[in-house]
Amino acid sequence: xxxxxxxxxxxxxxxxxxxxxxxxxxxxxxxxxxxxxxxxxxxxxxxxxxxxxxxxxxxxxxxxxxxxxxxxxxxxxxxxxxxxxxxxxxxxxxxxxxxxxxxxxxxxxxxxxxxxxxxxxxxxxxxxxxxxxxxxxxxxxxxxxxxxxxxxxxxxxxxxxxxxxxxxxxxxxxxxxxxxxxxxxxxxxxxxxxxxxxxxxxxxxxxxxxxxxxxxxxxxxxxxxxxxxxxxxxxxxxxxxxxxxxxxxxxxxxxxxxxxxxxxxxxxxxxxxxxxxxxxxxxxxxxxxxxxxxxxxxxxxxxxxxxxxxxxxxxxxxxxxxxxxxxxxxxxxxxxxxxxxxxxxxxxxxxxxxxxxxxxxxxxxxxxxxxxxxxxxxxxxxxxxxxxxxxxxxxxxxxxxxxxxxxxxxxxxxxxxxxxxxxxxxxxxxxxxxxxxxxxxxxxxxxxxxxxxxxxxxxxxxxxxxxxxxxxxxxxxxxxxxxxxxxxxxxxxxxxxxxxxxxxxxxxxxxxxxxxxxxxxxxxxxxxxxxxxxxxxxxxxxxxxxxxxxxxxxxxxxxxxxxxxxxxxxxxxxxxxxxxxxxxxxxxxxxxxxxxxxxxxxxxxxxxxxxxxxxxxxxxxxxxxxxxxxxxxxxxxxxxxxxxxxxxxxxxxxxxxxxxxxxxxxxxxxxxxxxxxxxxxxxxxxxxxx
Length: 690
Fold this sequence. Notes:
By secondary structure, the protein is an alpha/beta fold. Helix content is 40%, strand content 15%. It is globular and about 80 Å long. The two termini are 52 Å apart. This is 4-alpha-glucanotransferase. One of its GO terms (molecular function) is 4-alpha-glucanotransferase activity.
């Protein structure tokens, strides 16, 4: 039982429930391995007793945590006072040192100090989170797009940040869209081939320069004459790449795009910055500090030693070692080059959000935060002290996957985060919100708990490790409050009881996908589709996501045939098709009963419109239109369960005939305009809840 108590103190679950009526014990080996990743030896009864004694001793002597998080209007310092020695004096001041006579009620950051009667002192951060995020200022709709897939006639073989600015400006001004939600733009791990998944990045803190539009960098106009012809050749190469994708059905090739862009950027590097631009760059470097220096240093070292830092010479595996300090000096030019790339990318990100706001979007660009980082990448190297070594994030076995999942991403260590006052987490959220009107949190349940899988063990042998959700949500809310941004949590799949309620109470929107919205309350044993009035208000409502079939594929059953062709089905094709057809028929029947399908179910485009009329009839604060849905695209951007079998994350947006479409063609699509008009009209006619 001592080991069970020790696990509980560190937030490590010793059982889990794959279903409501089933409890499964976690293997002892897993508990020992997970505690070891948290710096706790639980391998023997003696080590467990020693670890418990050490924990109790630390708790007895600790006055203040490095960071105390409160929620405005929902708590005071009384609970903290109750666990401190009697007559301990607590004082609060602003970060500039001005004392406050009462506990702060306004959201913000403060300094908390404690002095005991025997003279012991301690200080720490006090964070007061907003009681509730306000959400978007009005009900609105917008497009959800994978930016790489949204090519224009000017991009270099994949969608870029100039395309994002153009998509936002056009859809906001012409269609009245309120936001554009995009895939994570995190920096990828370099290599050939580069992992195309935006959800397994090298760094979540910094963007990927592959999304730069080279011609929009101011220095491009001042290339010297001897480099202009080289630049022209690169532009011709970019046009050829683009034509391969758009005209010859080739896949998006990030490596080929980066080969061209990196050559162009090396040329641009020779153009001296103007005094104003130089000053802006210097300010950016000072503002970004050690984090950018680490990322740029990793990028320079990866050029020499390869992208997996575990295989580097021993002295370079520690970012704070003397060897790394010397390498940073020796590679100063390359370190500065990668810092410069980050500045350029950050500038174009800012321009995209400004274009969205100038177009009248109440939200603008909604960025996406992946659940973790690649174990070989920049963040894993520079943040080894707060990431769990030898552990991977995944998902437990469930009704859809009896083997569980291993995503290959090292998780935050909750104890290490708390010891730093959550500084790395706060820094990450702040960076993501620099140029955002909103932030989507992938697998938002990870702010409460994550499934940890010890290295070398199957996902079935994992366990949940719990985080301080009050702190994680509070810090997220404060950063979003200060940025004036909305927060959307991706809460699909297995969600622990109370999570959605807590999110809604704090103003964090959830994600509701039409095909999953059924009555699971128990009142309806058939679990029929939920009518619009029964949907939650605090959500982004959509018909599909990047991991699911497009609406056209769902309606036609093409997604079942695709999965059969790739041998992903676990049951006979006929059975899968019958079940899928019955589900679609159930939804179409509901749409017909509600009068939302006057054209009839035989017209595919009409059914897609009806699906979105339905979404607009719900109370959801945000309605998301999957951009491929607007033009009848059949293909999913990502097909879970595949890697080389399917071209995940490499497909351009295409029409119903499978032909890729440029951004210009999307903007001229009568089908897209008609769908957006339907949603806009439906939102305008539906009364807003008081």
